[in-house]
Amino acid sequence: MRTYDVFPEPVGEYTVGRTQMDLEYTASDHSTRELTAFVYYPADSSEGKTTSAYMFPEVYGLLKDQPLVTEDIFTIDFKTRCYDDLALSAKDKRYPVLFYVCGGGGSPEWGTVLCTDLASKGYVVVSIGHPNSTMYKRTDGRLYNVSKEFSDVLMEFSQDPEMLALAGKMEMRPDDETAIAMCRKVLALPVLAKLTEYSELQAEDVRHVADYLYQLDSGELNSIFKDRLLLDTGMGIAGHSYGGLTTAMVCRDDKRFACGVGLDSGAFGLQDSDLKTPFLLLYNEPNYNMNAIIGANNSRETYYFSVDRVGHLDYCDIVFTSVNEKLRGERDAMEMRNLITDYTANFCDHYILQKAASVEGLAYDGVDLIRKTQSK
């Protein structure tokens, strides 16, 4: 396994700025949600600054308190390709907006490579630290770890006898009817109820931060983003693993979002959901069995791309930062990065910016379009 100590150069023409914001609000369950958000955005110059730190050491230290983490997973000794608190680029008047949702138990910094790439191509990209289900440090210095309750729910799911029995029956490359039937069985499991509740709260977090961006753009709140965000054409959102559930829920519930991307994610809580939003899924088999219901219900286009020779964590920064070969797939880290960036950017360019780009025209060895549903 090749090792790295620096993330790859961004694919786009812009230098990438990064800033962090703390927010808080009262959620539908009456809890106070204290969030943080990393915002990556296009800039014209590094202004002579050194690159942003990858992850706070205190956040990395929180991993030791998570019961599901029993061995070293990744390192944070990495040089990023973004810079803190730069001026927003003057090249364009407004910039489109994307959100990124990390996997459960992860950190908002886990998508730094993808967020930096997309910002270098002209997007403002927001990655949120979600209470209970992720770990992060706010700008006020307070640390938030994954809660024991959330860890227990994840552990219960991973060990659930009914889920394990169904997993043993999942076919590789199943036909649509078989995959949809299996997906319905999985989604009916009682063990998923609490996981779905956490994901619904994460979706509320995203919608709240989206509200906040509208306030920044209007000038109601002072920031570099006043009159600079392209919001009229809709926002996009991408999520990895458990974050993909949140991504789909946001698309289902908020018409301000024009498209969504799920990275090796499932469909918990989406049994009868019409997303009414173009959606793309990149996944490794047999995960079609876990998300086939999304395309079956969606009244807009849904793309399923099967990706071979990859591990589940290859869809986030761990493709570069991993210190454990058992967690990696067989694809080269740079190839996997290019693949994810290309599909995500191409999809969002088409549905947000109305460009002629088409994900069907991308060509990567071992990446197959398994299913595409048309608008109904």
Description:
The N and C termini lie far apart (45 Å). The protein contains ten helices and 13 strands. It is globular. Helix 6 packs across helix 7. The protein is of the alpha/beta class and 376 residues long. Strands 1, 2, 3, 4, 5, 8, 9, 10, 11, 12 and 13 form an eleven-stranded mixed sheet that branches. It has a two-stranded antiparallel ribbon with strand order 6-7. The protein has one domain (15-373): 3-Layer(aba) Sandwich (Rossmann fold), CATH 3.40.50. It holds the Pfam family PAF-AH_p_II. Keywords: Hydrolase, Lipid degradation, Lipid metabolism. InterPro entries: AB_hydrolase_fold (IPR029058). This is Choline esterase.
How many angstroms separate the termini? 45 Å
Beta-strand segment tally: 13
- Round the Cα radius of gyration to an integer and report it: 19 Å
Mean pLDDT comes to 95
CATH-assigned homologous superfamily: Alpha/Beta hydrolase fold, catalytic domain
Helix content: 25-40%
> CATH class, please?
Alpha Beta
Proportion of strand residues: 15-25%
CATH topology: Rossmann fold
* Tally of helical segments: 10
Keywords: Hydrolase, Lipid degradation, Lipid metabolism
Protein name: Choline esterase
Pfam families: PAF-AH_p_II
Summarize the structure.
Keywords: Hydrolase, Lipid degradation, Lipid metabolism. The protein is of the alpha/beta class.
Question: Could you list some keywords that capture this structure?
Answer:
376 residues; globular; Rossmann fold; 11-stranded mixed β-sheet; 20% strand; two-stranded antiparallel ribbon
Helix and strand layout, with pairings?
Blueprint: E1 15-26, E2 32-43, H1 57-62, E3 83-84, E4 95-101, H2 112-120, E5 124-129, E6 136-137, E7 143-144, H3 148-159, H4 161-167, H5 176-187, H6 192-218, E8 229-230, E9 235-240, H7 242-253, E10 257-263, E11 279-283, H8 288-297, E12 302-307, H9 318-321, H10 333-353, E13 367-373
Parallel strand pairs: 1-3, 4-5, 4-8, 4-9, 9-10, 10-11, 11-12
Antiparallel strand pairs: 1-2, 2-5, 6-7, 12-13
Helix pairs in contact: 2-10, 3-6, 5-8, 6-7
